[in-house]
Amino acid sequence: MSFPNPTTSVKLVLLGEAAVGKSSLVLRFVSNEFQENKEPTIGAAFLTQKCTIGSKVIKYEIWDTAGQERFASLAPMYYRNAQAAIVVYDITKPASFIKARHWVKELHEQASKDITIALVGNKYDLVKNDSGEEDDSENSLRKVSIEEGQNLADEEGILFFETSAKDGFNVNEVFIGIGNHIPESN
Ligand code: GDP
């Protein structure tokens, strides 16, 4: 006789500047879809999605917060009880990386001390050339290097991924990576 795998619920919050692709990453993970001109999220949106990782089943309870400054003061309400956070920036927008650094520091100061954080540099598709390889010419749209992202993640002891919500690159890996990192007792 076999027993069903116990499902672990994980409250996860997305943070990052407006338009970096937070809602698009969630839409890709939950429905495997992409919308070119997404309506901005007002306040916060809530979605759930199950994810099987080996023998564990994780039910992600996802809070997708609005990036607009006027909602920033509400963020603590969403990350206070979160077990996981995804801090997103756009690899073509340096200001969004600076903002991501602030979010990571705020989480380390204010959120639960055992929160699992993933830093995500999104819109990787924008730096690929026609043959699907990274465009390393001076015309590349990339403005934040992979090393800058990795260094910040290493300094802060958090996970790091570059993704594309548009073509799906590495999106599931973010949620699997977080699931593997969540302490068993949760
Ligand atoms: P949010 O404000 O952070 O939730 O960002 P959205 O998910 O609303 O995305 C903002 C804009 O960026 C929309 O026009 C999306 O279609 C676009 N976008 C999101 N992710 C990607 C991506 O990976 N690649 C590209 N090229 N565009 C993206």
Give a quick precis of the structure:
By secondary structure, the chain is of the alpha/beta class. It has helices at 22-31, 75-79, 94-110, 146-156, 171-181; strands at 7-15, 44-53, 56-65, 84-90, 116-122, 159-162.
How many whole angstroms does the radius of gyration measure?
A: 16 Å
Helix content: 25-40%
Count of discrete alpha- or pi-helical segments spanning 4 or more residues: 5
- Average pLDDT, rounded to a whole number, is 92
List the ligand species. Answer: guanosine-5'-diphosphate
The beta-strand count equals: 6
Q: What is the terminal-to-terminal distance?
A: 26 Å
Largest sheet: 6 strands, mixed
Strand arrangement across the biggest beta sheet: 2-3-1-4-5-6
Strand content: 25-35%
The run of helices and strands is: EHEEHEHEHEH
| Classification by helices and strands | alpha/beta
Low-confidence stretches: none
Question: Given the C-alpha coordinates, what overall shape results?
Answer: globular
State the main characteristics:
186 residues, 5 helices, 6 strands, globular
Structural notes for this entry:
By secondary structure, this protein is of the alpha/beta class. It has 5 helices and 6 strands. A hairpin with a 2-residue loop joins strand 2 and strand 3. The two termini are 26 Å apart. It binds guanosine-5'-diphosphate.
